[in-house]
Prior knowledge:
- By secondary structure, the protein is an alpha/beta fold.
- It is 31% helix and 25% strand.
- It has 10 helices and 19 strands.
- The strands form 3 sheets. Strands 4, 5, 6, 7, 13, 14, 15, 16 and 17 form a 9-stranded mixed beta sheet that branches. Strands 1, 2, 9, 10, 11, 12, 18 and 19 form an 8-stranded mixed beta sheet that branches. It has a two-stranded antiparallel sheet with strand order 3-8.
- β18 and β19 form a beta hairpin.
Amino acid sequence: xxxxxxxxxxxxxxxxxxxxxxxxxxxxxxxxxxxxxxxxxxxxxxxxxxxxxxxxxxxxxxxxxxxxxxxxxxxxxxxxxxxxxxxxxxxxxxxxxxxxxxxxxxxxxxxxxxxxxxxxxxxxxxxxxxxxxxxxxxxxxxxxxxxxxxxxxxxxxxxxxxxxxxxxxxxxxxxxxxxxxxxxxxxxxxxxxxxxxxxxxxxxxxxxxxxxxxxxxxxxxxxxxxxxxxxxxxxxxxxxxxxxxxxxxxxxxxxxxxxxxxxxxxxxxxxxxxxxxxxxxxxxxxxxxxxxxxxxxxxxxxxxxxxxxxxxxxxxxxxxxxxxxxxxxxxxxxxxxxxxxxxxxxxxxxxxxxxxxxxxxxxxxxxxxxxxxxxxxxxxxxxxxxxxxxxxxxxxxxxxxxxxxxxxxxxxxxxxxxxxxxxxxxx
Length: 427
């Protein structure tokens, strides 16, 4: 492990806003709050950008409007879990919060709720996509941004044809049209794929970037605008008078603040006592491997739907990611999950998968039962706000979340309806 320099104790001056959590969502919240004229401090229990914002696949994907909770998802999940090498793994244990989460998830596996969630995600995803265009043009530099779309690749013809129903739904409900490529036409578009792949659907609305470089760009932007970033600073307690938080007790000292934003991702349930209510988020562990570039390196980001494996082209490398493991806060790197990524990618990619990884990584995704993030005021605390629960869409949803959260905090007119993301909806 790299040893980091000790952080100096916090000064006693009062802040306008303290953002707890230095991931991509916390960074975006801090940015838009600073743009609104607030003095902002970010505190993180580890390194800024060092959690789930570091090694994910970096998709900015308006195409991902449909939640995991969909018709048939529960039965398909149970069948998949019976397989030893399933991309989805649940480590069952006696934890009432886990069982409540899955019960809420099961209740939402119907078309009506799926579409309601889809429309709420669509509003945030479309907003974020537009905001990224502005940020990448004017603010965030050197992030390896590519607006080349995203391929949903299918190995078999039945699966390819079955997805046509999903594509039709996305087209009719959300105006998200994909281009269809079958057989040889797909290989011309993406030569890194093996011959014999059935086809793919290409969503040109999407883009991708390198998430660790995105977080470096956020840091440069925030610090140059006067945002203070304090690392290795764990929130321990909050001093509350009535319904107002007056100060935060951290591992580096006490911080007074007028307002507090909790953007702690999968760690948010660890703060239930401080928030005075349970937040139904479960950590969904994902993995990735960053591998050296090959002769026929992937040109486009791809998702191999039948095996739940994602591919991201990077400068001089490419990343294989995904899988979902509900194992609580298990902090081990499971080699079998990494092998699952290798095996899945090998079914599709033309070149052999390297035995040597440039980076092997895991992170906890903050999963909510309905697939929507929590954005808004904490019901039990008048000056504390939540921006957490973005699942697998943290990078995609961050700018819109940050802007919406800043609008709620400052009392400005929200640019999207905040009601679908209210904390009260599931608690």
